[in-house]
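Justification of computing resources. Each target in the renewal requires a structure prediction run like the one illustrated here; the chain below, 370 residues long, is used simply to show the kind of job we budget for.
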Amino acid sequence: MIKTLLENFNPENSPLIWLVCAFVLAFVIAYQTFPTILYVAKEKHLMDEPDSRSMHSSKTPTLGGIGIFFSLVVVMTIVGAMLNTKALLLVMGGLTILFFLGLKDDLTVLSARKKFIGQLFAALLLIIFTDTRIIGFSKIFDIDILPYWVSIGFTLFVYILIINAYNLIDGVDGLAGCIALLISVFFTILFYNSGALSLATISVALIGALLAFLKSNFSSKNKIFMGDTGSMIVGFLLAFFTISFISQSQTNIDSEYFRASPALAFAMLFFPLIDTLRIFFIRIFILKKSPFEADKNHIHHRFIQAGFSHVQTTFTVVLINLFIVVIAFNMLHLNLNSQIGLLLVYGSVLYCLPFIIVRVFNKNKKRVKV
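Resulting structure tokens:
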């Protein structure tokens, strides 16, 4: 009976039900896994020790990435059996490489060079064997199709940029998880509408895993951090979704995102990318130091310094990024250069707005006291 059911079942005939099942499975597996991870981490003293840069004051487990990884792998294994796609196996391979690299970094210390090599290898697996790459600049600065090897090199750069930009925003409770959740929701909708069921399944599974993680990440008693394990595999998936979306749009002239996909992808990833650009500028040109030297100049640090709590910081940033994406979807009628130019302007203004409001509020508060 089960054999007959499996032989006659086609996920593409019931995509919505299929995605709901993938979401529920990912959530349940992750939700049931995190308590075990917390118990083992506490028993074996696998905790993050607060230092001068830490935004927390107590020892906290940093192995949340294990639960996310386990949840995703189980879902993709089942999906692979049903959909039989090569891309899913390669994604699992890339995730596994980054999982073990991140786990070693969370438990001991891993050099930046080894992490970089691992990221390159994981990204190259997908780029070369699935030919999923950014084939051109969609007329940005009048540049269209790129030569094959230039396309591979640029796609590889985008992978490394997104993975590490995402890692840099993992600084306050819930921020990295909520940003990834928001981005994954948009990609799930885009992939579902385009009929890319395999991609939609991975993104909806990530949503389920992240929701289970956020419950523990926001907890005051049983808190757990994503760690390098989580930030690398989640960043890798966000990069994969971004490049897959751009690649699909650029190769389909009938797609409504044929020319707009780079701007939409930039809008979804605006916070991690603009924060990385900003922090590198400050370190290189203002502080005159290495761009890879850690400090407290990230946007989320500025929110905390301005008086925002962790939760307020997270939800303010997520809300702003949501506005940015909604605006981007309403600018599809413009040419791509105009979309990106305006995105930089209104995105920067929106992120400056909370600080302006706080400053004005504090000034008025002082006047009232006087």
